[in-house]
Amino acid sequence: MNDNGILQGDFFIDGDTACAEAAICAGCRFFGGYPITPATEIAERMARRLPQVGGTYIQMEDEIASIAAVLGASWAGQRAMTATSGPGFSLMMENLGLGIITETPCVLVNVQRAGPSTGMPTLAGQGDMMQARWGSHGPYEIIALAPSSPQELFDLTIRAFNLAERYRTPVLVMTDEAVGHMTERVVIPPSEEIKHYPRRKPQVPPSDGYLPYNPDPDGVPPMACAGEGYRIHVTGLTHNEKGYPATVSVETQRKLVERLIRKIRDNRDDIVELHEDQVQGADVVVVAYGISARTAARPVRVAREMGLKVGLLKLVTVWPFAENRIQELASQVKAFVVPEINMGQIALEVERCAGGKAQTILVPHAGGGLHDPDDVLEAIMRVSRWNREPETQNSKPET
Amino acid sequence: MAEELTNLLISEHHPMDSLLRQDRLPHIWCSGCGLGTVLTCFVSALQKLELDLNKVVIVSGIGCTGRAAGYLNLDGFHTTHGRAIPFATGLKLGNPELKVVVISGDGDLMAIGGNHFIHAARRNMDLTVLCVNNFNYGMTSGQVGPTTPTDARTSTSPYGNAEHPFNVPYLAAATGATYVARWTALHVRRLERSLIEAMNKRGFSLVEVISPCPTYYGRWNKMGDALEQMKQYHDHSIIRHRTDPAEADISLGGEIIVGRFVDEDKPTFCDLQREAVQ
Ligand SMILES: Cc1ncc(C[n+]2csc(CCOP(=O)(O)OP(=O)(O)O)c2C)c(N)n1
Ligand code: SF4
Ligand SMILES: [Mg+2]
C-alpha cells in the first residue's frame, strides 16, 4: 500500500473487492449503502478502507436513503458511490431520476442476481438491463457499463467515475454475481497512471446573475457545489438555467429533456466502448456483455474450429446502445446471436437496430447460473445452417 | 415634516431581502398560510445567528413546506418526497463544514420519510429539522396524514380520521434527538429563539411548528379563516418547557402543549465515527 492508503500492484481478489479498490483509486471518498447479496462485499470493503484514506462510509437505513445520501455527498463536492443488487436497485429508481435531472455525478454499482423479487440471492443474473435503461420514470438517457472479469470491474469502475464527472450524470456499473464473487488476478496501476476527469467548476465568481444550469457547448453545465458561495437552487422539478422551477413551461421541459439526452447521445463515440473479435467478415456475430461475453468465448472458438465464420462483439458499454455499429453490421452479417441471463432484453435492442437486415437469435437463461456453452454453440450452428439453406428458415428446429 | 418622517420609515428594501430570492416572489403559498410566518421566523433566526451564510444549506422534500428551500437565498436542495433527511446526511458527511437544515412537512418527514427521520435521530446526525405540521398533505390538496388528529376530516378521511396520529416531539425524543421543541406559527419570538438554539446545537435537533393550512385542513374542520385558525392554535397552546413529550399528544380541538422539551448533549455520528477510527 502507498503512503496515501491507495493500493498498487498485483492482487488475487474478487470482483467486489476490486470494485471497492477502484473506487478508492478514482478518488471516491463517500459510500452510502445497505447490505445485499452479492454486493455486500463492496460495502464491507469500503467500510474498512474509506477511513484509511480520509473518506466516510455510512450504512443507511435502506437503499432509498443510500442513493439520496450519495447525491447529497456529491453536491458537497465528493466523488460518491453506492452498490446494490436487484431489490435495492428497484428501490433506488426514483432518486436515480433525481440524480439525472439535477445532473449529479455519482456511481451506482448493481451486482445483479436472479430475479424477479428476492429471486436467487446468491446466483447470477442479468435481468436488470432494461431496468437500468428505463427504470426511473420519464424520458432520459443513461450510461451503463458491463464488466466480465474482476480486472474489468476495476477498470470500468474508474471509468464510471470519470464518465460521471465528464457528463455530470449518475453512471451505472452493471455487473453480476459471477464477476462480483469471482477471484482472479487484478492489477492495480500506480496512482499517477490512473486517469482522473476533474469536476468541471464554474469559471465565474458567485454573482446574482449566475446560471448553474447554463451548459458549456457540449451540453454539460459546470457544477458549483454547496458551500462555495454560489447560493445554488437545485430541484427535481423541471427547471430553467437559473435552476428555478418552471413546472408549466412546456418549452423549458423540452429544452431540459433534450439537453439531458443529447449530452449523452451526441457523445456516443466517446462513451461507447466495444471489444470486437473477428467481427469483420463474419457471417454470424455473437453480441454479449458482462459474464455472458466470457461464456460466449468458448462456443465462438469451437464454431470457428468447425469452419464457421463467427465474430464476438462485446458490449463493454451497454447504454447508450451501440446502435450505429449494430446497424452497420446488420447489412454485413447473416445473424446476431445474443446470449444473456434473462429472457430477452438486450436482444430486443439488437433486433431493433438490425432492422430486419439480419436475424437476431436470443439465447435466454432464466437466471441462477451461466449459459451452457453448448446452448450458445447450438444457436450459432443453427443460424449458420439456415444461412446455408435459406429455404429452411421458416421451419426453425424445436429447441 | 410629517412627509419627511414617513419617507424615513419607508425603505426600498425589506430587511430580509438579502435572505430571500426576490426573483422567485411572489411565492405559491395561499394567503394566510402559516408557512409565511414560519419562513419569516427562520430568516430572522438566521440573521441573529453568527453563521457564515455561504455554509448554510437548506434541504427540503416535496410539499408546500418543501418549497421553502427555493425561496431562501442560500444553497438549497428541493429533493424527492420523503428523502430530504438522507440527502442532507450525505451533504453533511460530504462536507462537515456545512450547517445543514431540513425544512419539510409532516407528511414528508413522518410518513414517506418516517424511516429516515428516526434513523437520523438515532444516529444523532448533526442536522436541524424544521417540521411544519399542518395536520394534512397541503400540496396534494388536503389528504389525511400521519399527524392528522383522530376524528379530523380531510379529503381522504371524510367520515373522520380512524387513525392515531404521531406525536412528533415524542417520536423525535424517543429515537434520540438532542434538541426537541414545539411551537405554533403565532409564537414568533419563541419559535425564532428555538430555531437559534436548534441551529446552535451539535447533533439532531427538531423543531415542530403547528401551522394552519386554511385552504384544506382548516376548511374541512370548520376552523374559520386563516387568522382564526392561527389564533385558535395559539389560544389552545400551553407552554410547558421540559415536559415529557409523551404527554404532548394532540387531539382534535384539544390543547397543544408547546415548549422546549429536550435539550441535552451527546456525541454525534461524526464524533463517534472519528473516535472509532482513531
Ligand atoms: C413518491 C411521491 N409520492 C407522492 C407524491 C405526491 N405528494 C407531493 S407533496 C405530498 C404531501 C405533502 O404533505 P406534507 O409533507 O405534509 O407537506 P405540506 O404540503 O402539507 O406542506 C404528496 C403526497 C410525490 N411527490 N412523490
Ligand atoms: S395548501 Fe395549505 S399548506 Fe399549502 S400553501 Fe395553501 S394553506 Fe399553506
Ligand atoms: Mg403537511
List its traits.
heterodimer, A: 399 residues, alpha/beta, Rossmann fold, 2 domains, 8-stranded mixed sheet, 5-stranded mixed sheet, 13 helices, 21% strand, disordered C terminus, B: 278 residues, 8 strands, 37% helix, 16% strand, globular, binds thiamine diphosphate, binds iron/sulfur cluster, binds magnesium ion
Description:
The complex is a heterodimer of chains A (399) and B (278). In chain A, helix 1 (15-25) runs parallel beside helix 6 (150-167). Chain A has 13 helices and 16 strands. In chain A, strands 2, 3, 4, 5, 6, 7, 8 and 14 form an 8-stranded mixed beta sheet that branches. A 5-stranded mixed beta sheet of chain A has the order 11-13-12-15-16, sandwiched between helices. The relative contact order of chain A is 0.12. With 399 residues, chain A is of the alpha/beta class. Helix content of chain A is 37%, strand content 21%. Chain B is α/β, with parallel strands linked by helices and 278 residues long. Chain B has one domain (52-277): 3-Layer(aba) Sandwich (Rossmann fold), CATH 3.40.50. Helices cover 37% and strands 16% of the residues of chain B. Chain B is built from 11 helices and 8 strands. Chain B has helices at residues 2-9, 34-48, 68-71, 84-94, 106-112, 114-123, 168-175, 188-200, 214-220, 226-235, 269-277; strands at residues 56-60, 75-78, 99-105, 128-133, 179-184, 205-210, 237-239, 256-263. Chain B has an 8-stranded mixed beta sheet with strand order 2-1-3-4-6-5-8-7, with helices on both faces. In chain B, helix 8 links the parallel strand 5 (179-184) and strand 6 (205-210). In chain B, helix 2 crosses helix 8 (188-200). The longest helix of chain B is centred in the N-terminal third of the chain and has 15 residues, at 34-48. The radius of gyration of chain B is 19 Å and the shape is globular. Chain B starts with a helix and ends with a helix. The interface between A and B is large, with 42 and 38 residues. Strand 10 (233-235) of chain A pairs parallel with strand 2 (75-78) of chain B, so a sheet runs across the interface. Thiamine diphosphate binds next to helix 5 of chain B.
